[in-house]
Amino acid sequence: MSLGVAMAFGATPVPHIARWAQECERAGAKSVWLGEAWRELAVPLAASAQATQHAQIGAGVMQIYPAHPVLAALQAVQLQELSNDRFELGVGLGAGFVVERWFGVSYERPLIRAKEFIEVVRGAMASRHGEPFSYEGEIFRTHRYRMPFGTETSDVPILLAAVGPKMLELAGEVADGVVLGALHSPEYLAEVRRRLARGAERAGRDPARLAVHAFVICAADADAEHARTLARASLAYSAQYPHYRRRLKDEGFGELGDRIAERVRAHDQAGALGLIDDAMVDRFAVAGTPAECRDRLGHVTAEIDEVKLTLVPFRIDETETAARIRNALAAASELSATVSRE
Fold this sequence. Notes:
Layout lengths: L1 E6 L6 H13 L4 E4 L7 H10 L4 E8 L5 H15 L3 E6 L3 H8 L6 H17 L6 E4 L4 E5 L12 E4 L3 H10 L2 E4 L5 H17 L8 E10 L3 H16 L2 H9 L3 H12 L3 H7 L2 H7 E4 L1 H8 L8 E5 L7 H24 L1
Parallel strand pairs: 1-2, 1-11, 2-3, 3-4, 4-7, 7-8, 8-9, 9-10, 9-11
Antiparallel strand pairs: 5-6
């Protein structure tokens, strides 16, 4: 198991984001990932790369609908240059209502778009070593593109954010691994491995070489109930998205997930949090005192190559959110070191 952290910042200034990344590295994080929720990613990732020395720096994740894959390849190789080969590119679909409302792009053909996006990113990055790259897909096209820099950098790993079976199989087919959202169980993780293997075998690839990265909602505080309240806020945020509600349904929380989503859409945060019972928190989150978080993490890491502690700042102060993640990381670093030694 490798232990990382992930955060989606909005109002926090970029220099403060970079300091957070630096603090997390010092506290034992093997990777620091930033999400494209309210900010674009290239600038805060660049700042975080310069503020750190050893931790992997990851895009977790870049949305593919408003972006062009050649531009994504350019950003990825430049971040690889800046970080001294510590960058990983996570890409994902995003939510349909966000894509259409914010960017005016139709949320169509997600599987084809994801497949072509990754193929073009790979081809554009590979062009720095050889022949110009051309691609004629259903959605993306480029003609005789050659990247003029980055020949000394290593290849950038590409991970695909996936929840459902078809996207998981696509990750096995075209990506270096998968990034899972925060709602998972041991049974689901076993299914993830099966789907990845099916996609890999379809493409003649070795499924053993695919990495499983998973976000885990995590909040640590001396006041255990306060930490659990913060975890409830992240669960409420997740419940508003259709792909996560399908996960909740599969785990036996379907009706409850729908009711939570209704409260979120009605801007009734208190009502949404009031619906999230202890069973849901215990099922999907690691929350409580630092000692409780450390012990709980020891039970949720099966089938996961890298755990990314996260807490979505959904109507929570971002400074508060970042502090609770740092607490959890500090508590869990001893566990991570013990597992690594074994």
